């Protein structure tokens, strides 16, 4: 069962109002969208974007539950939001939310190797039709130092050099095909195993970020806010690791210095203890929100 993260906090700070036009840039299973829809109707419209066509189809019954034109679902990259608005003749928005990363559905049902616990082929793409870079290609073709850099920078993994070395040793014997094989190889690079976190967690995160250009997508979105939001329009970004959060924090700081945005929260918003107890996956979530100046 999908549980949207920081839902109450995101709705409170973005304050969607009756009749407004909102964008959910990472529609997923529609958790945040459903709550936004309740606030903007009647008269409002929600544009839900997701880069994963399958997850949109999986939730395709959602529009039926709302009157025509209230919800518009489009397959695409949130980094291309200005082009998506132009293509569908939509105006700039009163508000937007992006809830970064992957969803529980990717781990549980996508069969694309997102989970190190499953024996699935290594893919990890959100958009298998439009993105040629797979996890399989990444681990089997990149040079050892390139792999080490990706695992270090995108996974915050101090053991990155040893992991990259082990990957290259193993792929010389046989191509690494499944998520399970990769996780066994990563595990073998650790002398000491932290009981709180599986050794493969950070490496899988790093490869997923690389395969989907996740950091570039955030940077592109944040560079284009004036083409997406009306003056006074609000944006909330939920991140799940320090690398993403740092990009959001630094870009917001620059936009603030340029007098383009105002902060809606002084301190970063984190889940309450009760949410973490109910949904442990929320523990690393952070929400930052701004509004575009008039
Ligand atoms: C954390 S989930 C969102 C969950 C959603 N807020 C909910 O409550 O159901 C992130 C979603 O963003 C999608 N996604 C990841 N990168 C994307 C991108 N660049 N553009 C659009 N969607 C993206 C993923 O396919 C996934 O469905």
Order of helices and strands: HEHEHEHEHHHHHHHEHEHE
By DSSP, the count of extended strands is 7
Radius of gyration: 20 Å
Instruction: List low-confidence stretches.
Output: none
Structural class, please? alpha/beta
Question: What is the CA–CA distance across the termini?
Answer: 40 Å
Number of structural domains: 2
Number of helices: 13
Q: What's the average pLDDT?
A: 94
Judging by the overall fold, what is the CATH architecture of the largest domain? 3-Layer(aba) Sandwich
Helical fraction:
40-55%
CATH third-level topology of the largest domain: Rossmann fold
Task: Give a description of the structure.
The protein has 294 residues and is of the alpha/beta class. The protein folds into 2 domains: 7-105 and 215-292, Vaccinia Virus protein VP39 (Rossmann fold), CATH 3.40.50.150; 132-211, DNA polymerase, domain 1. It has 13 helices and 7 strands. It has helices at residues 7-14, 31-40, 53-58, 81-87, 104-108, 135-141, 144-155, 160-173, 179-187, 201-211, 214-223, 242-257, 273-278; strands at 21-24, 45-50, 71-75, 93-99, 229-239, 261-263, 286-292. β1 (21-24), α2 (31-40) and β2 form a beta-alpha-beta unit. The radius of gyration is 20 Å and the shape is globular. The termini are far apart. S-adenosylmethionine is lined by residues 2, 4, 25-26, 28-32, 49-52, 55, 77-79, 99, 101-103, 126, 217.
Write the layout of secondary structure elements.
Blueprint: H1 7-14, E1 21-24, H2 31-40, E2 45-50, H3 53-58, E3 71-75, H4 81-87, E4 93-99, H5 104-108, H6 135-141, H7 144-155, H8 160-173, H9 179-187, H10 201-211, H11 214-223, E5 229-239, H12 242-257, E6 261-263, H13 273-278, E7 286-292
Parallel strand pairs: 1-2, 1-4, 2-3, 4-5
Antiparallel strand pairs: 5-7, 6-7
Helix pairs in contact: 7-8, 7-10, 8-9, 11-12
The protein binds S-adenosylmethionine.
């Amino acid at each position: 069962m999908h549980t949207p993260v920081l839902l109450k906090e995101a709705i409170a700070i973005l304050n969607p109002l009756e009749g407004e036009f909102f964008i959910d840039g990472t529609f997923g299973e529609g958790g945040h969208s459903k709550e936004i829809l309740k606030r903007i109707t009647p008269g409002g419209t929600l544009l839900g974007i997701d880069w994963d066509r399958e997850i949109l189809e999986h939730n395709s019954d959602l529009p039926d539950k709302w009157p025509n034109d209230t919800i518009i679902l489009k397959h695409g990259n949130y980094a291309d939001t200005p082009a998506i608005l132009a293509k569908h003749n939509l105006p700039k928005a009163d508000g937007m939310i992006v809830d970064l990363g992957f969803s529980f559905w990717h781990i549980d049902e996508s069969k694309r190797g997102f989970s190190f616990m499953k024996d699935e082929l290594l893919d990890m793409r959100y958009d298998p039709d439009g993105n040629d870079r797979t996890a399989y290609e990444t681990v089997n073709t990149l040079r050892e130092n390139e792999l080490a850099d990706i695992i270090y920078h995108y996974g915050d993994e101090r053991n990155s050099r040893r992991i990259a070395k082990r990957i290259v040793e193993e792929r010389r014997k046989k191509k690494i095909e499944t998520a399970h094989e990769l996780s066994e190889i990563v595990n073998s690079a650790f002398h000491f195993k932290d009981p709180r976190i599986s050794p493969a967690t950070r490496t899988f995160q790093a490869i997923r970020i690389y395969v989907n250009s996740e950091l570039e997508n955030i940077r592109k979105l944040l560079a284009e806010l004036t083409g997406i939001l009306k003056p006074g329009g609000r944006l909330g970004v939920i991140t799940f690791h320090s690398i993403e959060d740092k990009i959001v924090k630094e870009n917001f700081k620059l936009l603030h210095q340029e007098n383009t945005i105002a902060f809606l929260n002084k301190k970063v918003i984190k889940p309450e203890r009760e949410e973490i107890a109910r949904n442990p996956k929320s523990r690393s979530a952070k929400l930052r929100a701004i509004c575009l100046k008039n």
